[in-house]
Amino acid sequence: MAVRTLLQDRIAAKIEAWQARVQATQAEGLYFFNQPVDELLSPTRVRIGQRELLMFASYSYLGLIGHPRINAAAQAAVARYGTGTHGVRLLAGTLALHHELEAGLAAFTGREAAVTFSSGYVTNLTAISTLLSRHDMVFSDKLNHASIVDGCQLSGADFVRFRHNDMADLERCLRRARPGAARLVVVDAVFSMDGDIADLPRLAELCQAHDAWLMVDEAHSVGVLGAAGHGLEEHFGLPGVIDLKMGTLSKTIPSVGGYLAGRADLIHLFRHAARAFIFSAALPPAQAAAALAALDVIQAEPERVAAVQANARYFRDQLRALGFDTLNTETAIVPILCGPDERAYAMVRECQQRGLFALPVISPAVPEGLARLRTTVTAAHTRAEIDLALDVLAQAGRAVGVIA
Ligand SMILES: *Cc1c(COP(=O)(O)O)cnc(C)c1O
């Protein structure tokens, strides 16, 4: 047998680097990634092995994970359609259920039409690379999600990154745009590492002034922003200023998948030209039905939106009163700045030992020295659970020197 070493040699260095990094943190008892949850006890409590932990790292912002109506819808869909589809959407994979879900998403987002894909990640890849090609220009916030960055790169367009939520910098970049080049500005509605909110009023003005389209990723704003949880436009009272809304079905909506919502002609284009639609399997029935039921629940139980907003405000205010640096968060994503990676790990260990499930974000996901605990608060947390978490965080913060 021939020895195949060319790729092996290249990949060996990567394997070693990751093994060394993971083993070093494991040796110190600081490795908390990939922990398998054994059971969902409630939207805010999980069992890991023999231990019950209070969940402060969930994206189920409205506490819908495990909701009986959503579970029942998923089960009914399995009974009706089975567990998969006959392939990709364009061919035999489309179910009546997909069209119902897409109509529901169009209504929820206030757009003419919507289309779904098998993940949020792939939705960003396919959206940007379908809209743009070489010689076009895309302007992307420095803190945008990795799936947006990857979509920009895949598109082949000139990729311009502007300073985080800095509208003066975006304006400078747009002023320097090549005359005649098609322009897309793309941002997260709520930034996933910092929890701050995109400046939609100014974004809309700049896009108008510089002939650019505006695409917004609503992964962390659906259910969280706006009186009815409809997201960024509702938060600012600016309906219709976003040209293309992207969202995920895996966070507030407790399923999996992603969607695009916009003008009917644009969505029609995606149904025929988006490679993730043409070459990747349709959403399974259970997941589509769960997502559709979740839209109904969000509308039928609006008190959940008010609850996540009130809980997040209380949690942020109390953390700041304790002396934690929570950056500029205004949402349910609450970063707790720790400094070096090691201190973020130590903070997580102290929290997990005290029964609080929270996770670190370290470099390179965030800049060196800005490692943090990233906590999330949901509508399902009770005041007593939030107070318990605050108590644990205060103890942990003092133990590792994040607060005095
Ligand atoms: C989670 C997330 C995605 C990806 O969504 P998935 O459905 O998990 O693939 C895209 N954008 C942002 C901002 C996210 O936070």
Q: If you had to describe this structure to a student in words, what would you say it looks like?
A:
With 404 residues, this protein is of the alpha/beta class. It folds into two domains: 27-62 and 303-400, Aspartate Aminotransferase, domain 1, CATH 3.90.1150; 68-300, 3-Layer(aba) Sandwich (Aspartate Aminotransferase, domain 2), CATH 3.40.640. 45% of the residues lie in helices and 17% in strands. The protein is built from 15 helices and 14 strands. Strands 4-10-9-8-7-5-6 form a seven-stranded mixed sheet, sandwiched between helices. Strands 1-2-3-12 form a four-stranded mixed sheet. The protein has a three-stranded antiparallel sheet with strand order 11-14-13, with helices on one face. Helix 8 (200-209) links the parallel strand 7 (183-188) and strand 8. The radius of gyration is 22 Å and the shape is globular. The N and C termini lie far apart (63 Å). The model has no long low-confidence stretch (mean pLDDT 96).
Defining key terms:
15 helices; Aspartate Aminotransferase, domain 2; 2 domains; 404 residues; binds pyridoxal-5'-phosphate; 17% strand; Aspartate Aminotransferase, domain 1; globular; alpha/beta
Average residue pLDDT:
96
| H/E element order | HEEEHHHEHEHEHEHEHEEHHHHEHEEEH
Radius of gyration: 22 Å
Structural class: alpha/beta
CATH topology of the largest domain: Aspartate Aminotransferase, domain 2
Biggest sheet overview: 7 strands, mixed
Instruction: State the end-to-end CA separation.
Output: 63 Å
- Low confidence ranges: none
Report the CATH superfamily of the largest domain: Type I PLP-dependent aspartate aminotransferase-like (Major domain)
